[in-house]
């Protein structure tokens, strides 16, 4: 690490369907990060995968302007030095006119990327090859945390309570769609049909009695050829934030928060309810739970975090049934991270405000080695 301010490469945008959410997340972090403590290099990834230098003006990265925020090309393209060399941390920019400039070495990457090609272990693998520290989970935990199928397998092995579900792979659907549909018959409707490796509720359809399951599967397959079909769970949606412990200390769990979807056009907490329709849902933080229930979910959230070998941060989502049973829904290894997102809200309620949370995550990354650990 350099003797002056640590240099942070803030990476956002990306090739996934969650590109706009990543832009909004980056805007929140850029507004709050301590510029006196950190030298920030904002780099956006276009939908085509080009890395481009961003001037730091985040006013356009909002979801309430009527336009979807997006990283566009046209500026200086950015690349890192060759992997496996001392120059792997060097940031090199080239303009459309062909001028090349070296912007210096970075100390850590903060990958504010949601979805495929960013949150799923692919970027983490590239950074590992370059021995570049980064915020968040490593390759294996990121990959499993992105795949709703494999995360459920890990959770079940850890003794966590997982709701009924089935998985439809691409080959199964192309080979015999009728058999794939038949595999869902044991599940009680409503069903939730989801792309296995997408987030932010993109591509999810609620299927009630009489609805077309086939159409819902095809809609999910637009985003991912592997589909997870889950049986609906009756219960409150409670979430808990987890933060890696310093050194050998155990992971820390926040106070939980609750998502309450208002009656109306949204049958569940979909993309519109999360990011566009401000009246569609509300968050309650801390959630209205007993002390025993709060202790239970915090312990379960850390168990889920540890079962994947997660690092840095995660948000773990549960259902609390009317019978008092906790059923895990999923883990997000790079959760929504705007100032009003649930993860920062939960940590603020626990006593760690947004700027301090950003600082803690960067410090955790700087203190953690790359490679096997």
Automatic annotation (TrEMBL):
User: What biological function has been recorded for the protein in this entry?
Assistant: Cell wall formation.
Q: Which SUPFAM superfamilies match?
A: Glutathione synthetase ATP-binding domain-like, PreATP-grasp domain
Enzyme Commission code: 6.3.2.4
Q: Which GO terms describe its cellular component?
A: cytosol
Q: Which organism is it from?
A: Galactobacter valiniphilus
Q: Which PROSITE patterns match?
A: ATP_GRASP, DALA_DALA_LIGASE_1, DALA_DALA_LIGASE_2
* Chain sites annotated for binding Mg(2+) 1: 317, 330
Name the lineage: Bacteria, Bacillati, Actinomycetota, Actinomycetes, Micrococcales
Record field: catalytic activity: 2 D-alanine + ATP = D-alanyl-D-alanine + ADP + phosphate + H(+)
| Pathway(s) it belongs to | Cell wall biogenesis; peptidoglycan biosynthesis
| Protein name in the entry | D-alanine--D-alanine ligase
């Amino acid at each position: 690490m350099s003797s002056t301010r640590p240099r942070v490469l803030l990476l956002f945008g990306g090739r996934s369907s969650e590109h706009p959410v990543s832009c909004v997340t980056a805007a929140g972090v850029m507004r709050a990060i301590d510029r006196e403590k950190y030298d920030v290099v904002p780099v956006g990834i276009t939908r085509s995968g080009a890395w481009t230098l961003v001037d730091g003006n985040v006013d356009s990265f909002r979801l309430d302007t009527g336009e979807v925020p997006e990283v566009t090309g046209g500026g200086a393209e950015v690349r890192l030095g060759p992997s496996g060399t001392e120059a792997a941390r060097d940031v090199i920019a080239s303009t459309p006119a062909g001028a090349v400039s070296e912007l210096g070495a970075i100390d850590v990457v903060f990958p504010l990327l949601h979805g495929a090609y960013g949150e799923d272990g692919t970027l983490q693998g590239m950074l590992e090859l370059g021995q570049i520290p980064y915020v968040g989970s490593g390759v294996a935990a990121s990959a499993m945390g992105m795949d709703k199928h494999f995360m459920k397998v890990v959770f079940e092995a850890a003794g966590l309570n997982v709701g009924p579900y089935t998985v439809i792979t691409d080959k199964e659907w192309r080979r015999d769609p009728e058999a794939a549909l038949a595999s869902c018959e044991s599940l009680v409707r409503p069903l939730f049909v989801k792309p296995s490796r997408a987030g932010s509720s993109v591509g999810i359809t609620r299927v009630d009695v009489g609805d077309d399951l086939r159409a819902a599967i095809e809609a999910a397959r637009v985003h991912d050829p592997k589909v997870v079909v889950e049986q609906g769970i009756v219960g409150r949606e409670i979430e808990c934030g987890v933060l890696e412990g310093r050194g050998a200390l155990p992971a820390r769990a926040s106070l939980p928060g609750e998502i309450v979807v208002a009656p109306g056009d949204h049958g569940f907490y979909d993309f519109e309810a999360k990011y566009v329709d401000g009246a569609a849902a509300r968050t309650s933080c801390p959630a209205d739970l007993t002390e025993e229930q709060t202790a239970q979910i915090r312990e379960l959230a850390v168990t889920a975090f540890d079962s994947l070998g997660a690092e840095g941060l995660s948000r773990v989502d549960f259902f609390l049934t009317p019978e008092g049973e906790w059923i895990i829904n999923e883990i997000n290894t790079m959760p929504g991270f705007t100032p009003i997102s649930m993860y920062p809200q939960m940590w603020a309620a626990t006593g760690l405000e947004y700027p301090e949370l950003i600082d803690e995550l960067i410090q955790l990354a700087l203190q953690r080695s790359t490679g096997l650990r």
